[in-house]
Amino acid sequence: LSGLDPAQPYFQGTPTEVRLDKSDADFVDIIHTDSAPTIPNLGFGISPAIGHIDFYPNGGKQMPGCGKNPVSQIVDLDGIWEGTRDFVACNHLRSYKYYSDSIIYPDGFLGYPCASYELFQSGNCFPCPEEGCPNMGHYADKFKDKIKNNMLKLYLNTGEARDFPLWRYKVTVTLSGKSKVKGYVNVALYGSNGNTKQFQITKGTLKPDNTYTAYIDAEVNVGEVTKVKFLWNNNWINPTFPKLGAATITVEAGQSR
């Protein structure tokens, strides 16, 4: 049984006979997309973990792309009717859009087991454990026999619009050069399955021999990394023309570790 943002009003905090619960099927997976408290935030979805595995994309409360202005949202790619519904309940309705995208991307929507969304964002729950990460949506039941804990909370990020899946990488850059400068460092990944856009790894003071780490959510599963593009820039014109390079760049894929 897959629960697509099961309802919060009149259901949260009720006995298991009344609401969806993991006792309802051999395997119950839940996608929480609108679990902010009903009052004052008007969340339509239930927030506690109630399945065998519970996915909290983007933290489970506010979905990217749902904060757009009403006009652009109502006149959406999916037409006026769909746009109007999205305006009223955008976060709530994201659950079925993620689910339908998950059918097309069997390797997408990896949920990382973690105690909280904040810990996930800071990289504490990266990479996937040895048994792997379950896929949110249609293929979640592939993980059915790997569940060790009584309750599994899983976190991931998604895109703002279709196509929604993102793939998480840890990128570590060690700089080389002679003097420190102020600026930023960008990295793009190239691989056997495609390339990513540029992601900012760090900004501020850039010091040679220092190592900088960022967790990026790429819009493509690059497969085997074949090339990494490194770009740095300083924030203002510097008459001494400082030079910086990358001594090493390490890329770790969350899925395959």
UniProtKB/TrEMBL annotation:
The keyword Lipid metabolism applies. Its EC number is 3.1.1.26. Its main location: other. InterPro entries: AB_hydrolase_fold, Lipase, PLAT/LH2_dom, PLAT/LH2_dom_sf, TAG_lipase. Keywords: Cell projection, Cytoplasmic vesicle, Disulfide bond, Hydrolase, Lipid degradation, Lipid metabolism, Secreted. This is Pancreatic lipase-related protein 2. SMART domains: LH2 (SM00308). GO terms for molecular function: galactolipase activity; lipoprotein lipase activity. Belongs to the AB hydrolase superfamily. Lipase family. Pfam families: Lipase (PF00151), PLAT (PF01477). One of its GO terms (cellular component) is neuron projection. It is found in: Cell projection, Neuron projection; Secreted; Zymogen granule membrane. Transmembrane segments: none annotated. Pathway: Glycerolipid metabolism; triacylglycerol degradation; Glycolipid metabolism. Coiled coil: none annotated. One of its GO terms (biological process) is lipid catabolic process. The keyword Lipid metabolism applies. It is a peripheral membrane protein. It catalyses: 1,2-didecanoylglycerol + H2O = decanoylglycerol + decanoate + H(+); di-(9Z)-octadecenoylglycerol + H2O = (9Z-octadecenoyl)-glycerol + (9Z)-octadecenoate + H(+); 1-beta-D-galactosyl-2,3-didodecanoyl-sn-glycerol + H2O = 1-beta-D-galactosyl-dodecanoyl-sn-glycerol + dodecanoate + H(+); 1,2-dioctanoyl-3-O-beta-D-galactosyl-sn-glycerol + H2O = octanoyl-3-(beta-D-galactosyl)-sn-glycerol + octanoate + H(+).
